[in-house]
Write a structure and sequence with these properties.
- This protein is α/β, with parallel strands linked by helices.
- It has 5 domains: 8-116, PriA, 3(prime) DNA-binding domain (GIY-YIG endonuclease, 3-Layer(aba) Sandwich); 127-190; 206-385, 3-Layer(aba) Sandwich (Rossmann fold), CATH 3.40.50.300; 396-439 and 495-631, Rossmann fold (3-Layer(aba) Sandwich); 642-731, Ribosomal protein S10 (Alpha-Beta Plaits, 2-Layer Sandwich).
- 31% of the residues lie in helices and 22% in strands.
- It has 22 helices and 31 strands.
- The protein has a 7-stranded parallel beta sheet, with helices on both faces. Strands 16-27-26-17-25-24 form a 6-stranded parallel beta sheet, with helices on both faces.
- A hairpin with an 8-residue loop joins strand 1 (14-18) and strand 2.
- Helix 1 packs across helix 12 and helix 5 (147-158) crosses helix 7.
- The radius of gyration is 29 Å and the shape is globular.
- Mean pLDDT is 88; it is low at 1-8 and 194-198.
- The structure holds adenosine-5'-diphosphate (ADP) and zinc ion (ZN) (2 copies).
């Protein structure tokens, strides 16, 4: 424990503490023990109003703005060592400033709830209990009314190596067990940590020329670069590069963090990782139980785990020996949190890695345009892997002009013919459609009305199997009734979702095994693994799916990809819509021909002449990238300009807009070189009965934007409290 024997005058005994509340400040307390100061980054218990809270020490000072006699004392120092290392704490404080989010909430994101509630931050020791000879002899001497003790003794009599879990499952209290232990009726032994892994001796593939080249370049870089952009086409073997780099770090006793878009969707990757790094691997994602999350955190914190694989929030994992951060599919939207604390895990990774001189690898076949720009200006070092591993080469892209075919059919004739060809050769086909459910629109021809959600500005999607309509924005559902309740005529179903396409396919290819992969089809636990297994084993012949299918899967027998509703992206309004469509098309296409049989990609569209389509046709995605960046530069979109969106919502539309008008007015009065656009309604204005609107701030100078937002927030905090408007800051927004 830290003891500082100094006289009181020089003591830094004013303690800045972040409490887990949505307040944009820290609070000062006095250290209750005169000579014992809590460490920065340690947990402390403090009085707060009528409550007690567990906070984190941010800093220690000699002085406070609050008069000393008004300061309260810290009640308890929970940790004698920091549980948030200096490097991570500084990252969190930076996040709070950069994303304009309350520090207490930022810290909350970084800690598992057990830690926030004060549980030990030391690794948990697994123990096994066994009955002693004394215990066996004494079992009859236990008082009859000590029922729990008798129950426990019977458990120990019948089982060897009883775990705490078994004790808990038998509803026996810790107290009972400790009691028996003190009487020496039972004994405990500490279990060394053994994970159940059936290690399959994996024969490591011989690296390709490109893989070797990339690995050597990264290894030999002498600290002048922290970040590498690994641009490797789909199936170029990026994952193997990651694994070899992680191995290098393990050899140096360093930790690696591997971020992936969605863990549930990549069981292949997880099993590969478990095979290679089983004993030193931890997994972190939102699907874990509190206990699992706590254990992963402890293992990372104690450096027992050398490899941490996780989703977005794992960027806040404690990593005392951090050597490497890898962000797979770095362009993926899931790295940006889209509500509350709207952080970008990718950007935080760069910040964090710089602090400790760790390396960052951003990997993708279709990097974000922001990262491309950063590599162009030399912030990131670009590494290329232009060749695919198998003999198949790049898939051939073909366009189906839907203007020439019956427009009401989502499966055009040329597409069906091509499918027949691939099925005949016993290969697999993937059909991509970015819409789940049966159909998006239920329409009455007489009333000219669609069935909308009562809470949102949106149509309800038909889910035929369950005979319901669901709003995909608020989750509201109701029974499907095709009869119009106004005019009693039969309504028609317009458009197609994955379910309807599957139904159509069953009619066209009745003997074919068809599998659907979307959020609905994997809602039951374990379902995703079952589906992926059916695809990998070749059981499924046609796979219909959404965006989920784009996420780095490696399906060996797939030779044809069909893209059904391309035009949704072409017609999108956001400046990023076209770019995203292009990325998706390249990613989905990349699922075809991953081994030795060349793949074919069919794109259905009403806009065959669109530049995006033609550049993909001509295998010229790079040209598309260059043109998109040029377009962004011309229009002063990011990354050539900075953006912050001030988002607000309320049940009261009028109040919402006058609130935003007021913010806009204050902003304009500041006279900073910042462009202010709006207030404008959000893309879908009413969601869950609330109106959403926003102000867009744009500037060439990032710091001007931040100064303005800081000042705005402090002004808003002075407004009369009104709970009717909720607002939120979105720095570097990905959606407008
Ligand atoms: P990417 O992540 O770039 O899409 P993957 O890492 O999934 O590509 O690799 C594609 C396939 O090639 C995988 O099945 C992988 O096991 C295999 N592979 C990777 N590297 C090699 C190699 N050096 N030799 C042979 N096969 C490899
Ligand atoms: Zn009607
Ligand atoms: Zn709704």
């Amino acid at each position: 424990m830290t003891k500082r024997h100094t006289n009181e005058k020089t003591l830094d005994n004013i303690i800045h503490i972040a409490v887990p509340l949505s307040v944009r400040r820290s609070f000062d307390y006095l250290s209750s023990h005169k000579f014992l100061l809590p460490e920065i980054g340690a947990r402390v218990k403090v009085p707060f109003g009528k409550n007690e809270l567990i906070g984190i020490v941010l800093d220690r000072f000699k002085k406070s703005d609050v008069p000393k006699e008004k300061l309260k004392n810290i009640l308890l120092i929970i940790d004698d060592k920091p549980i948030i290392a200096r490097e991570l704490l500084e990252t969190l404080i930076w996040c709070s400033n950069y994303y304009h989010h309350p520090i207490g909430e930022v810290i909350k994101h970084a800690l598992p709830s057990h830690i926030r509630k004060g549980k030990p931050a030391e690794p948990i020791i697994d123990v096994a209990w066994n009955i002693t000879d004394l215990g066996k002899q004494s079992i009859n001497k236990i008082r009859k009314n000590a029922r729990n003790q008798i129950k426990a003794m019977n458990l120990f009599l019948m089982n060897d190596n009883v775990t705490d879990e078994l004790i808990k499952n038998n509803n026996l209290a810790k107290k009972t067990i400790n009691n028996l232990y003190e009487k020496k009726f039972i004994d405990k032994k500490i279990l060394t940590h053994k994970k159940k892994i059936t290690k399959i001796e994996e024969i490591l593939p011989k690296l390709t020329f490109d893989q070797k080249n990339v690995i050597n370049k990264i290894k030999s870089e002498k600290r002048s670069f922290n970040a590498f952009l690994l641009k490797g086409v789909t199936s170029s073997g990026k994952t193997e590069v990651y694994l070899r780099l992680i191995e290098e770090e393990i050899k140096k006793n360093k930790q690696s963090l591997l971020l992936v878009p969605e863990i549930g969707l990549t069981p292949q990757l997880i099993s590969r990782l478990t095979n290679r790094f089983g004993k030193v691997l931890s997994i972190m994602h939102s699907g874990l139980s509190e206990m699992e999350r706590y254990k992963s955190w402890l293992n990372a914190c104690s450096s027992k785990s050398k490899v941490i694989v996780g989703t977005r929030s794992a960027i806040f994992a404690p990593l005392p020996e951090l050597g490497l951060i890898i962000i797979d599919e770095e362009h993926d939207l899931s790295y940006k949190q889209q509500e509350g604390f709207r952080y970008s895990a990718r950007d935080i990774a760069i910040f964090r890695a710089k602090k400790v001189n760790a390396k960052v690898i951003l990997g993708s076949a279709t990097p974000s345009f922001e990262s491309l720009h950063n590599s162009n200006i030399g912030k990131y070092k670009l590494l290329n892997m232009p060749k695919r591993i198998g003999k198949a080469g790049k898939p051939k892209v073909m366009i189906i002009d839907q203007n020439k075919h019956a427009s009401n059919n989502i499966l055009s004739t040329p597409l069906v013919l091509a499918m027949q060809k691939h099925l005949k050769r016993n290969n697999q086909i993937l059909l991509f459609l970015n819409r789940r459910g049966y159909a998006p629109i239920l329409f009455c021809k007489e009333c000219k009305k669609t069935e909308g959600c009562i809470r949102c500005d949106s149509n309800m999607t038909i889910h035929k199997s369950k005979e319901i309509l669901i709003c995909h924005h608020c989750g509201q559902n109701k029974r499907l009734n095709t009869i119009c309740n106004k005019c009693n005529s039969n309504r028609i179903i317009l458009g197609s979702g994955t379910q309807r396409v599957t139904e159509d396919l069953v009619n066209i290819f009745p003997k074919t095994r068809i599998i659907r992969l979307d959020r609905d089809s994997i809602s039951k636990k374990g379902k995703i693994i079952e589906i992926l297994e059916k695809i990998e084993s070749g059981y499924a012949q046609i796979i219909v799916g959404t965006q989920m299918l784009t996420k780095g899967h490696d399906f060996p027998n797939l030779t044809m990809v069909g893209i059904l509703n391309t035009d949704q992206g072409i017609l999108g309004t956001d400046f990023r819509s076209n770019e995203r469509l292009a990325q998706t098309l390249v990613q989905v296409s990349g699922r075809a021909g991953r081994r030795d049989i060349p793949g074919e990609v069919y794109i259905q569209t009403h806009f065959p002449e669109h530049p995006l389509i033609s550049s993909l046709m001509n295998d010229n995605y790079e040209e598309f990238e260059r043109e998109s960046l040029a377009r962004r530069r011309e229009s002063r979109w990011p990354p050539f300009n900075y953006m912050i969106i001030f988002r607000a919502k309320s049940f009261d539309k009028h109040k919402l807009f006058s609130f935003l008008e007021k913010i806009s007015k204050i902003s304009k009065e500041k006279n900073l070189k910042v462009r202010i656009l709006g207030p404008a309604p959000a893309m879908i204005e009413r969601r869950f009965n609330k109106f959403h609107a926003q102000l867009l701030f744009q500037s060439e100078k990032r710091n001007l934007l931040h100064i303005l937002i800081k000042e705005l927030i402090s002004e808003i905090e002075k407004f009369k409290k009104n709970g009717q408007i909720q607002w939120n800051i979105d720095v570097d927004p990905l959606e407008l």
